[in-house]
Design goal:
homodimer, alpha/beta, Rossmann fold, 6-phosphogluconate dehydrogenase C-terminal fold, 6-stranded parallel sheet, 3-stranded mixed sheet, about 50% helix
Chain lengths: ~280, ~280
């Protein structure tokens, strides 16, 4: 499938991310439809020109017309949707997603999928601390990364199509990783950092400290406002990788603690020098 | 001492912080002098109008003229300066500082000080990840907090004078805490967060991940670029408080880890809800 503007693109799950995809794709001239749980969501999106058409029911015509489908659902809901509705999809349709974990979803979906359909997974590493189609905004893609995670079941043309999708959506950088590499990376960069932020807030009822708080604390805990439904599911779906990263972090943090307890200033300075040197690479 | 513009204010230690004080005070019309280790610093500051006059030597006249002295030195250097030079200070001079830890310095200085001098400690919670008078900038005070940390040796008038200093420098908020309260607060809000950021960077050589890095990781590690000389000293000077905070954090982080390992989704969600609720208080 080429990126031609008479393509029908169906978005399943019209929240913050699905809505942001819809806005970007509508602007590019595609016909964008959507299926979402609530009619309020569909009505809002149609009234505001975010989609051309949509339904909160299993609209067989709408599903059957789609040349490409973007799934913006929680992982378990996504699998269930495929089980229940894949028979309605047009032969040759391309499927992609926005799921934040990959190993646990990509192989299962590909395994159960009809042979005349193809699922090429992707993770748009964009987000906001707010939810819902009302807050959708495709500008969140511009500073962000888009990762395509193919397996050996995927065709070159589907991989290329998915990379193009990342580009037309306006992502800063489009990369390709295996589902395994992706989940290890996301366990460290995203999930571990959220665990740290949450733990820092739950340490103690430190609300009285709000008047003394500087940028450091605010920066480290910005992501401590967290969608508990979504993130607890993502953590569990990436449990092994995340546990490994948490254990490495605990060990490293404890080493610094023990250097401090021992009064080993040179040992602490060495850690700080390594930290400073490595952090410099991230200022790009 | 009133804040009258013919006061002579001496800054001892003309780095980022001392220089920023100098710029703000000069603009307000005070006569600002400085003592610093290197002539290059003094020359630069005089050429650029940051100070009126300065010296890299023990200039007895300059020291003897000061109505107020602001010490922007490392804690141990500060104590040594008082031992060596306090006999040169004018009777009735007011002394303050910018040191980031308080218990370990305030009592020692007050103990050794001549009875006709008064030291009222303060902590301007401002900073940048760069150093030196060349980078000084008094705009860093505007979003920041200024904490005065008196003891029962301090007079009401000196405490008021020190609070006024915070206000005229342009700090967003001026507060008063005991040295003990200050060190506990700073152990949690500032030192613990720096320990976390450093540990996150030293966990592994993760430079290859730079292309996938989103805002969360960048925010959490911004302060991982750290002045190892200064921060290792500050950590050691606040060792007991910081160790306590580190141990509480390890315990809390491990609890979240164990919930994940046990697959206890509801337990994780409860932590996330507490975290979200508490973090909301910090969005002011």
């Amino acid at each position: 499938m080429k990126w031609i503007s008479d393509s029908n693109i169906l978005i399943v799950g019209l929240g913050l991310m699905g809505g942001s995809y819809a806005k970007a794709l509508k602007r590019l001239g595609f016909r964008v439809t959507a299926i979402s749980r609530r009619w309020e969501t569909i009505d809002y999106a149609m009234e505001n020109g975010i989609i051309d058409y949509g339904s909160a029911e299993t609209d067989e015509k709408l599903i059957g017309e789609a040349d490409a489908v973007i799934f913006a659902l929680y992982p378990e809901v996504f699998k269930q949707w495929i089980r229940d509705n894949q028979h309605l999809l047009k032969s040759g349709a391309l499927l992609t997603d926005v799921t934040g974990v990959k190993k646990c979803i990509v192989y299962d979906i590909q395994e159960m999928l009809r042979p005349d359909l193809e699922f090429i997974a992707a993770h748009p590493m964009a987000g906001r601390e707010v939810y819902g189609v009302e807050n959708s905004d495709d500008r969140i893609f511009h500073p962000a990364n888009y990762i395509v995670t193919p397996t050996d079941r995927n065709t070159e043309s589907a991989i290329e199509w998915c990379k193009s999708l990342g580009r037309v959506l306006g992502f800063r950088k489009v990369s390709v990783l295996s589902p395994e590499e992706h989940d290890e990376m996301i366990g460290f960069l995203s999930q571990l950092t959220h665990c740290i932020a949450v733990s820092l807030m739950t340490c103690s009822d430190n609300r009285h400290l709000v008047y003394y708080t500087g940028d450091s604390f605010r920066d480290l805990t910005r992501i401590a406002r967290i969608n508990d439904e979504m993130w607890s599911e993502l953590f569990l779906l990436n449990r092994e990788d995340l546990l490994k990263q948490m254990d490495i972090f605990i060990e490293e943090f404890r080493e610094l603690r023990d250097l401090l307890a021992a009064g080993d200033r040179e040992g602490m300075r060495e850690k700080m020098r390594i930290s400073t040197e490595r952090r410099a690479y991230f200022d790009i």
